[in-house]
Amino acid sequence: MLRRLSSLFCLTPLAILLSCGGSPHESDEHYVFIAANIQVPYWQSAAAGFSKAGDELKVKTDFTGPKTYDSKAERDAIDDAIKGNASGILIAVTDAALLRPSINQAIAHGIPVITLDSDAPDSKRLFFIGTNNYQIGIAGGKRLARELHGKGNVVVFTMPAQPNLQDRLRGYKDALADTGVKITREVDIAGDPRIAFDTTGQIIGKEKDKFDAFVCLEAQSGKEVAEVLDRYHVKGKVVMAMDTDPDTLEWIQKDGIAATIAQKPYSMAFVGLQMLDNLYHHKPAALDEDWLKDSFAPIPSFVDTGSALIDKNNVTAFLQAKQSATGASKQ
Question: Can you give the pLDDT at residue 170?
Answer without folding.
Answer: 98
